[in-house]
Records
---
Amino acid sequence: MTVTPYMPDDEDDEMNGYLKIDRYNPEMIAKLSAHYEDILAQIGEDPKREGLLKTPERIAKAMLFLTQGYDLDAKQILGSALFKEEYSQMVVVKDIEVYSMCEHHMLPFFGKAHIAYIPNGHVVGLSKIPRVVDVYARRLQVQERLTNEIRDCIQETLQPVGVGVVMECRHLCMCMRGVQKQNSVTTTSAFTGGFLQEKTRAEFLNLISSKLS
Ligand SMILES: Nc1nc2c(ncn2[C@@H]2O[C@H](COP(=O)(O)OP(=O)(O)OP(=O)(O)O)[C@@H](O)[C@H]2O)c(=O)[nH]1
Ligand SMILES: [Zn+2]
């Protein structure tokens, strides 16, 4: 079996050491592929039929991608782009797409994260906020822990006046199986510092509910 090693698609990633290429090494992919081949047989498929020949390897690569957060350091990523700046109002990055997998069924849950902080002498490079979301989302998760981990990472690294995180997700384990509710959305939130005050929290919630046309 030929295995193509994963390469970061962005030089910046490589330079910052975000991705440890070892995660995608051929030995690891081959080991995982063997397990998935076995699973295909166990569920009643024929792993030797043409359409499935490369499937174990594809799943192995997909799973390594979807769980790459275990090899990434969110605090290091966030801390790599802090800029001294006297801006003291709320910074909000909203509608960040989130794709994660629930730790109970390993089925996807997905939706949006809305994140705000009030700087305390430093601002962070904006792209680092969605990167932090991805680091924690690309692990086996529950939505509540994911929400708290994002909050704690920003609070501890940036030490801002406060952090607010709101997440809205659909869980496929509740849609495709089990209770089979297609439209339910779960909202979680986590706050620190200034966001524990009603006025600040209301400003954040108001900003994330407004639509840009
Ligand atoms: N709190 C929380 N629960 C989650 C999350 N993702 C999935 N779950 C729930 O985890 C629970 C696992 O419950 P179990 O009774 O052990 O598993 P189950 O028999 O598959 O449950 P059903 O989904 O009700 O069929 C289910 O209620 C899921 O809806 C999450 O992010 N947060
Ligand atoms: Zn689940």
---
Amino acid sequence: MWRDRLLLAATFTAIFSADLYFILLPKLRRMGQGSRQFCSCGPSNISLPGQGGLATPHLSNWTYVPPLGALTTDSTGSKLGRLFAHPLYNIQTPALGPEEKLLLVEQLMEYYRKKMSRRVDHSAAAVSNISVTEHEVTFDPDASWLKFHLGINRYALYSRDDPAVPQLLEDMQGMAVVSADYTQDEKALKGVCDCTQVVKPSGHHLKLALKMHNFAKAMFKPMRQQRDEETPEDVFYFVDLQRHNAEIAAFHLDRVLDFRRVPPVTGRLVNVTGEILQVTHNEDLRAVFFTSPANNTCFFAKCLYVCKTEYAVCGNPNLLEGSLSAYLPGLSIAPRISIPNPWIRSYTFTGREEWEVNPFYCDTIKKLYPYNSGNRLLNIIDMSIFDFLTGNMDRHHYEIFTKFGDEGFILHLDNARGFGKHSHDEMSILAPLSQCCMIKSSTLVRLQLLARPEFRLSDVMRESLKEDPLRPILTEPHLLALDRRLQKVLRVVQRCIRRQGRDEVVTKDFAKSTGKPQTATEMKQTR
Ligand SMILES: Nc1ncnc2c1ncn2[C@@H]1O[C@H](COP(=O)(O)OP(=O)(O)OP(=O)(O)O)[C@@H](O)[C@H]1O
Ligand SMILES: [Mn+2]
């Protein structure tokens, strides 16, 4: 009996020691290593992309800093908070030299001071013949939109913890609108569309530039479709409506993916009478306003095939939902060029582009400047993943800032044709990825993270979109489609790896561009 007890005690001690040695101790050691790995006290050795191209700097230069700001805290067990606190989302770029910033403070202030003085002259002249509500405009050098402009650098439009971004979203939601006008591209068009072509030249959509009382400017796209309406099957992507909620959701998705290539976008209820009709100096814009039989104030786009009143948008009776996208710095101070997407679609009923019929299309592209070196092709592939997730087939061009030359990031502007069909995944949008079989390592690890249940893409997007005043921005089926599509992206990558090997497919954020940065003229010649 006594011997039995001794035997039992000895057995338990042995089991406990084995457990301690083989399981608990290694676990503790791993935890210890883990906290050292991501500490802010020295160079990081995260097993992530290692080589660092120009648009993704070398990791040994990057340091982990604890998350900052309301967007990144995790006091309530939020998945988004945990995502943004993850080491992958806290790798800081090295200190930026003046050449790596888009704008210099003095240059920007001077530019806007001049613009302000011109505005005073203009409004004084304009009041004489039309009754426009004149609002006070004040130039605030500390305004969030100026801080956003000043934060743009060669890596992204804003940094993760930049407090100017949430501030800018808040300002765009609540500030008084002091003027409204057509956007530049719409003015260039002067309401004319060539209807012999299926594709309009540009910008026949209802979109306006709104200016706030602190001189902030935003592009307004009104609501044209209910959240739960799906694009009918027989509608071509190029005649599909633009969706204000797609613009908003795309900004959030781009931030969740950590690209930061979409300017900040927020939803807002706009008073079409008080904040557009009564503050515009543009006679053409005033002329497209009318009152509907239901006594709602409406306006329509001045273009041949959407100028009819049945295509108008109406307030209820004055309030209308829309997206507001923060303007980028003007082209005269921060020039950008627009480059045709190599995977452009034909924009006709019958046409086929080469990429649709030639499975080796990418081999040709890889040899062509500027896709033959640097990050450009990988950035196009990032963009195709982004567009596939939203279902946007309308990426005919992309824009880059000329200042950063070939190594600059690609702007993801105009996302309004995404989120049209939740029940369909348009695999052809992924053609750059599936045909080139290349992906940045940094993009892949983030996608893998977002596929895990603890960070599930639909969950972090649902949470992020709750911050918008027009919530809910996406219906549940659209949110769930994001998870399904993410799995499809990962499957395409897996297939590539199986065929070609990991080293060929997963690019360690790419080698440096071999050539010197090109001038704008050189770049234009290649278009
Ligand atoms: N946030 C922004 N700041 C500054 N310019 C912008 C911004 N968003 C868009 N633009 C400019 O306005 C142009 C038209 O915008 P957008 O593409 O969103 O409208 P669109 O009606 O779909 O035009 P298009 O038919 O040319 O695609 C863009 O190509 C871009 O140059
Ligand atoms: Mn467009």
---
Amino acid sequence: MSVIEVHELHKAYGETVAADAVSLTVEDGEIFGILGPNGAGKTTTVECLIGLRRPDRGRIRVLGLDPRRDGRALREQIGVQLQESRLPDALRVGEALELYAHLYEAPADPDRLLTDLGLTERATTAFGNLSGGEQQRLSIALALVGDPRVAILDELTTGLDPNARRETWHLIEQVRASGVTVVLVTHFMDEAERLCDRLAIIDRGRVVATDTPAALIGGVETSAQLRLRTVPPIEASALADLAEVHAVATEGEELVIRGDGDVLHAIATRVRALGAVTVSARLGQATLEDAFLALTGRDHAPEELRADAAGEVSP
Ligand SMILES: Nc1ncnc2c1ncn2[C@@H]1O[C@H](COP(=O)(O)OP(=O)(O)OP(=O)(O)O)[C@@H](O)[C@H]1O
């Protein structure tokens, strides 16, 4: 069953087209990712979903409701954590939950939420004294306090250290396991690959693909990635003209080369011709970043989309 249906959503701010014929469906019980670089139109799409913005055109149904017309009924059934939502520094964790619980007719039990989200010992701590990870856990708790069927979480792990990110991912999986459908807005490739059952890649206001991470990555299998180290080191520009090479980047002492066809042979021949010796050559597997590049036709991913944008994280 689809819990969210968006058909040809269009939204512009003056000359800027933020959402250009965006269509997507979110199925009951899944973690659905909306992945794209800054400015791609993710937040605009989500704000239309929850009735905060009026689309210029298009049809949206969330749990069968029209977010603009049936906003009140919808807000009883969805939980939202919006980007950079902050609480007053002096507000204590338990007080915040009680306060938010009063906004709903049939709220979840705040004590159970504190337990589920590992915040029981912080119940009397003021928001301003929580760590970044704890603040994010509280914002998940607040998104769940109405006992929603759908939780929409926008840029949940931005600014968190790798440990706190992993903890947050685990919590999101628990939320899904409890039967809540999760829409996760993110610009982190690794997060989308690790957590989402399916995802829509958005670029410049358009959905360029929707599928499971594995299927999106599978679609670019023919593109090989090689990490190469030589002595003496050779410049990226010394390989860039090879027909089999699509892109070369320098990462530390390694060259990261993407290409196809007989790219290994072409590189080996060039390395020898340059009088260099290969110290290590590792073939990498395609990632969501490769899928993004293939689907958007860009030759490099925007900096903030890379997996390590918030530090080195391995799932
Ligand atoms: N209120 C607004 N007025 C004018 N332009 C806006 C407004 N909100 C967003 N935009 C523009 O619309 C485009 C899409 O923005 P949006 O915030 O939806 O993207 P995003 O993918 O969520 O990006 P980010 O990850 O940076 O939040 C951007 O070019 C942005 O500058």
---
Amino acid sequence: MSEPATDTPVGTVYRLDDHREGRGALVVDLAKTPTAPTAAPEVDESPAGEAVDRPDNPLADWLALPDADVLPAWARSRASVVANVQAFGRLTWWHTRYHGLRTPKYLVKTVLLAARGFFRAAAGLWPTLSAQDHTAAVKALRAQVKAKPEDVDLAVRLQMAHYTRTQSRRWRFGAAAAAVTAAAIGIILAPPLLQVGIAGAVVTPLAYLGRGKETRLLDQASPPLRVDMSAQQLNEALRAAGLLKSGSGKDDSELPKVSCTMGPVRDGRGWAVIFDMPRGGGKTASDVLAKREVIAQELGVDEIQVIMSRVRAAKGGNAGRVSMWVADDDPYLGPLNPSPLEKAEKFSIWDAVPFGQDARGNRVAVPVMWQSMFFGGLPRRGKTFSQRLLTAAGLLDAYVRHYVADGKGGADWKAMKAVAHRLVMGAEDDAIEALKAMLQELLAEMERRFALLRDLPTSVCPEGKLTPEIMVKYNLPVIFVTIDELQEYFTAMEREDREQVINDLCRVARRGPAAGFVSNFASQRPDAESVPPKLREIITIRYSTQVVDRTSSDMVLGKGKAAQGADASVLSEDHKGVGVLVTGPASFVTVRADYLDGTGFAALCARGRALREAAGQLTGDAAGDVTAAADAAGLTVPAIVSDVLEVMRHAPRMFTTDLLAGLANLDEDTYGDLNAERLAADLEAAGVKRTSKQVKISGANGAGYQRRDIEAAVPAEILLSTGR
Ligand SMILES: Nc1ncnc2c1ncn2[C@@H]1O[C@H](COP(=O)(O)OP(=O)(O)OP(=O)(O)O)[C@@H](O)[C@H]1O
């Protein structure tokens, strides 16, 4: 079921009807693979007279096999049978407790009804007991005697009739009294169990007799949704949401209802149902998806628990068919999912990258080749962690060349220095220059590649695109461009620079894929400045962690997405690493991303460096980075030296004040209170010899450091290995 207004990601087997098949991985299939050519229609060689479906066969309709599952939805897999039997058990137990608690109330109610029944029975029997059949005769004779008092015969007949009535009454009352007394004695003398039986046998028909038109002996039990879900609840919720017509005063049976083609049945940790909106109501499946919040409220759950999607024609659906799964509780909380990449030795970037899992535990993998990605959301919700998963996959493929820029220049991407061909940290002036230079380098490489691909024969390059073979043969590794905290660059730049950078990013994202460029961008603030719509619209995969409202969600995921149900504002602060993944115009799914922390990521970077060294693919900044080389060689460079080099990555000289600010940004805990004197002392203790204490930058003189002085403190063998 595709998530929320969710439309199932293109090509995804969204497992709303997982009970049919075993659960499997869900690959967000962005590159629509051409469908296999359809086989030529088979010629029916069987004798024409035997074909049951021949049009002239009068029994054709009758003999036609219905195209429906033989087994009911709940019985189609072992897991489903178990889940549904358990659900039935839970429901029975719930009813037992519910009605058990109310038994005293039911008993009192029964006795009261029985009392009313007794009076009704007595009133009904009264004409018989009081021998009213004889009263009429007595009355008639009395009238005649009154008219003819002298008629002795009449007087005698009246006397006789009166006598007969009195006798009759005596007999009838006597018999009734005897029956009641006998029953009472019987009850008193009978063993206790029989007493209960007799009392039941007496009270039950009396209570039945005493019931009124609206009388209900048992309370109406409505179990919570996690115990039971019925089609009636669904209809009521849809009616309340204005998706089904309601008619005041009309009987329930006269109102239009959805027709459930499956369920509700128990499926995993929730209820699954597939239903069709009734024709004539003018409401579509998309209308249902857009009302997720109201439906959830009517069902008494949080909208995060309601996972809906359309069922498209390819899966036997239509414009009114909705697949819905209502989870028992928040499906995106619980233990972390460790990333499978953490244990992987290698990975081919041409394969879909394991990314996370959806509400029902289906694995979600994202193919990144030919794609561009954008991550957005509020701070501290797991945006960078999720974005890093895709870059991390590229670490394990030696034929991926990483270009990385982190506008905050913090610890998140620091480990990439071991691998990245270019690594830009921070958004200070020198870093902005480095970013601009990186983009120029990327654009030049892109044009070089296009020229090269154009010249290749069609037999080698049939689609004008990079292939795994061309990649190796012509040494054209996939280029992975990761930029985090884009907003830092945009806010730090002048308008003209910003326009230029946005245009360059657009070119990389739009034209780059064919040349083997994968863009992976992230920004924090969901406003037009931080997420330029022009760039966002080019991006093919968007992921948003929690944002404050639907407008912000649309800023990241695309205009109108929230109305379709792809709304990251329904997520809460607890949803770390959970986001809405939009993979196409009508495809999205809410995913809980796998967890890969900084240590795990650093280990992958180290593995990536070793892989590249072995494949001769360690290039650019990573090849010349002394601290990364020292790490790889198992040598320790004093932390202060390595961190100062990190901060001075883009600058041959730096004023002490800027250096202190950069160090604090890199590691607030360690360097937050550092001052110029202590910095100088620490560096001196680490072996740094300053050739001068003053530096000149852009014509201004001031206290500062030269990078080459710091590098000189690194062990000689490392400097040698990096070619210095
Ligand atoms: N997939 C995940 N599963 C569980 N927890 C996660 C996941 N991803 C991130 N987290 C938690 O969320 C915290 C914040 O993550 P992250 O640094 O990626 O946030 P962010 O949105 O990038 O924040 P900022 O914009 O401030 O950099 C992490 O420290 C981690 O504890």
